[in-house]
Each structure stands twice: as C-alpha cells, then as structure tokens.
Specification:
Shape: globular
Oligomer: single chain
Radius of gyration: 19 Å
Strand content: 35-45%
Number of strands: 16
Helix content: 10-25%
Order of helices and strands: EEHEEEEEEEEHEEHEEEHEH
Number of helices: 5
Structural class: alpha+beta
Length: 256
Amino acid sequence: LLVSALTVGCGANSPPAASSEGAARGEEPPRPEDPVVTLVGPGEGPRSPLRYAHEVGRRSKMFMEMGITMAIGIGNGPKQTVSSPPLRMGFSLEVVDVSSLGTARILGTLDSVDVLARPEDAKELVENLRRETGSLVGLKTESSFTNRGFTHDAKTSIPEGVSPKLRSTIEGAQSMSEQAPGAFPREPVGIGAHWRVQSKIKSAMMTFEQTTLVTLVERKGGDAATCVKLLEKKKLLDRLVGQSFGWEYVTQCRQA
C-alpha cells in the first residue's frame, strides 16, 4: 500500500515545536516495533526539528470518524462493494505526565458513539449498530506519546457487555494506533522536506505493510481560520494531513 500525503504544521496552543532547543534536551529513542521514519530530502531554507510540545494538565476533546468499505468477489466474477455506516466517536483526553524526554502519558475516555446513518442504510442495520456500539461508551485508554509522534504502551480497558466481535475490532484498532504514520524524522527539516514512514499493522490473521510518503508544505502558528485560508490559497485543502497535538484546534479547522 502506497499513500502519498502532504502535511502542514499548523498549531494554536500546542503545535509541533520548531526549536532546536527541544531536540537538545533529548528524546525517547524509537523502539524496534515503531514505524521506521527515513528522511528523503531535508527541504529548503532554515531547518529545525519537528516535535510535538506536550503540557501536563492539558484537557481536550477529540472526535474520530471511521467507516468500513469492502469489495467482495468470488473468482473472476464481479465484485460487490459493501460498506457500513460511519461511526463518530467522542473522546475526552488528558495529558497527566510529561517525561524529561518530552514523552506524554495520556488518559482517554470514550464519551459518545454516534452512528452516522445514510439514506441508503437499512433501518434495522443502523439500529443494530447503535445498540452494539453503545456498549463502548466508558471505554478507557492509556498510552505514551513521544515528542516525535510514536505511540507506546497503549492499553485499553473495554467495558463489560461488549461483544467478542467488537472487542476484537477495538484491539485491532489499538495496533493501528501504534503504527499511525504521524511520526516526524529525527533530523532538522525545512519547507519541502520529504520523509518516508514504513509501518506494519498486525491483525489476528495477517500483517499489512504500509508506506506513507510525507512532504512538509508549510509550518505556521496562529488560529485555525487563518490556517484554513492558507490551505485554500495554496489549493491544498483536500490534499494534505494537518498534524497538531491540539485536538480542539483540529476541530476548529474542520469548522472553519
């Protein structure tokens, strides 16, 4: 799987830090199971490390939407595309500790699960999905997040009453979160820098190898609306991944 992505470092209260001072303090070394980040080109102009800046006590809301689409076929016969209604999950997150190496320990609670029913979705399917996913409310998470963007020691406490099938899905999502391609290179970078993130996502039956190519197109601080205007001006609004540790800021970007 080859995914080509553009990234823009936009931030309000906690954007990726751009000072060499943060790198000089040291950082947690990558682990063998972490995604492998390889700098392809360092970019132009002034160069400095990209790092997340964490603050103890920061509380945020995060919303995540996900859906599943599958193409099913037998032999050389025509394939049928099947998809489920998207789910929107709301989390409360808190940074409870930041180590001397800049790694944050983050606690999370799943506050809500909404089924985003579409006109074509069968009413019975939607109701069954709402009934099953509703049992996830109250789910607890704990993980460490390094200043380079690696997720370590992820733990999930799943409420009683969750079906075995859904429990397996949640455990698989935990593996995906640890291999998310949002990590930064160790080296200082400038505008136009390219790096490659190689990760392995393991499930009960198979292992997926994913390669993501990332290009840094802009670094800026400020408010979300200004960031969105910048992306519109560069005609990049639908072509990039915006990385920020301020989840409320990301929400404001979606609303702008």
